[in-house]
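Listing S7. Sequence submitted for prediction.
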Amino acid sequence: MKKIAVLLSLAVVALVAGCGGGTPAPKHTTGWGFVDKKGYLTVPPQYLNVLPYSDGLAAVVSGDHWGYIDPTGAMAIAATFTSVQSFSHGYAAVSDASGRWGFINKSGNLIIPCSYDDVRPFSADIWAAAKYGGTWQYIDDTGKVIAPTAPMIFIEALPFTEGFGAVKAPTSEGDWWGYVDKNGKMMTDPKYRSAMPFKDGVAEVKTPDGRFGLIDKNGLVGWKAETDAPSNFSSGLGLIKEEGAYGFVNQKGETVIKPTFDSAEKFSEGLALVKDKNGFGFIDTTGKYVVQPKYEDAQSFSDGLAAVKDKGKWGYVDKTGNVVIDPKYTRVQAFAEERGAVDLEP
């Protein structure tokens, strides 16, 4: 399971690592396929590796290369790529034998040539971050570049969300984070130690004095708190760590769920994955358990189901805690678009 309750400063690194570089084709044999929400196999186990369905297509390794299948399992885009990312808003980042990145559409046509060193996925704003010659820029689906309104280079960039992109730029006082809009105008001067994408009108930043806070789209700091591990807000609550225990606060910094958990993840689909002395379970926004803490491991809810591990095998539960797919898989991925990737290898 991915590391739980990651520090905000580390979350930026994790976000960057997760978006850039894609997923290279593995050299070992696995047996990935897909099941529906009743547990029926829709794509028999046969692939070396897979990514979840997105925009109606799932990336799979066939032979030594990546391609994409449709919900029936038919190959929709031939396996010709050395590395790929999932589709996002109609486009997917792909890498060819040169190791450089470009973008294809859902027909498999290369709409932006593989000429970039690294890329981030397209956002709802139809902008993608792309790295070329050591610096980052934002491009649209024709390859047009957002030019900064001031002489400034970006040494890091995160995906565009809600009209803004988080960027890291060199200044006379060091490398700092700020936000740029669709016209290339900086929302504020780069002045944050770290920054996360906007969500629900706010973004989390680490302020110059080393504290974590929220800013709105006017750049105003809405909340500061001296906590060990703030995380992205979700369902109106943010994950914190205090004296080794995890809990949740609202956007005013007020404690809503006391820090009592050994580990926790941010809320997903209204429920948060937490761990106590009894195991992993799920709580609602009041802190009440809706799935009892009895599992060896678990993943956050996605598409209405959560993966749980019991007696060494993985299955899925619904939001009432009912087991809807029996634990019998060696490895699983989160459900997306009514399909979950499973591995039947012993």
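Caption to Listing S7: primary sequence and predicted structure tokens for the chain studied. The chain is about 5% helix and 45% strand. Residues 1-20+120-226 form a domain with the Lipocalin fold (CATH 2.40.128).
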